[in-house]
UniProtKB/TrEMBL annotation:
Protein name: Metal ABC transporter permease
Main location: membrane
TM ranges: 12-32, 39-58, 64-82, 94-111, 131-151
Protein's membrane topology: Multi-pass membrane protein
InterPro entries assigned: ABC_BtuC-like, ABC_TroCD
Domain of life: Bacteria
Keyword Membrane attached: yes
Gene3D superfamilies (UniProt xref): ABC transporter involved in vitamin B12 uptake, BtuC
Keywords annotated in UniProt: Membrane, Transmembrane, Transmembrane helix, Transport
Compartments it resides in: Cell membrane; Membrane
Length: 166
């Protein structure tokens, strides 16, 4: 059993494992509600559609999180607008904006003169999690689980019978 505990002697392995557990619990709990509402593709779309915001924030020297938040919000609002106007089906609107934003992000990243590997931002690097990152992950985990606990009945009701819930 020494082979199992030996890697945990290193700080980067401890933070990486703890981050994986926290994110796993959060995503599993939240994922149930996402899948029941048939919005699984929306999560993937938003995760990749933040790339233009990341690149623009990097070019402007701004906070990357703020750039990602703006790009994600614009994408979510665009998907909602297209779906609400019934111009396109929900899945089609998600697919179009997802690929468009990702393509725009790749185009902007290729135009940037100084190289920065945005794949680490898009896909993450679990072994690169710092204690500060871990603190943010823990706070988000507590917030998400608290909101889900408080709104559990309402979320279940809207998932099962949206007309009655309204």
């Amino acid at each position: 059993m020494d082979w199992l505990s030996t890697p945990l002697q290193y700080a980067f392995m401890q933070t990486g494992c703890l981050a994986a557990v926290l994110v796993g619990v959060t995503c599993a709990t939240l994922g149930v509600h996402v899948v029941v509402r048939r919005l699984a593709f929306m999560g993937d779309a938003l995760a990749h559609a933040v790339l233009p915001g990341l690149v623009l924030a990097s070019l402007g020297g701004w906070d990357l999180t703020a750039g990602a938040l703006v790009a994600g919000t614009v994408t979510a609002l665009g998907i909602g607008w297209l779906a609400r106007r019934q111009v396109l089906a929900d899945d089609t609107a998600i697919g179009i904006l997802f690929t468009s934003m990702l393509a725009l992000g790749i185009l902007l990243a290729s135009l940037k003169r100084s190289f920065r590997d945005f794949s680490h931002v898009l896909f993450g690097n679990l072994l690169g999690v710092s204690w500060g990152d871990l603190l943010v992950i823990a706070v988000v985990t507590v917030l998400v689980l608290s909101v889900l606990l408080v709104l559990h009945k309402e979320l279940e009701l809207t998932a099962v019978d949206p007309l009655y819930a309204a």
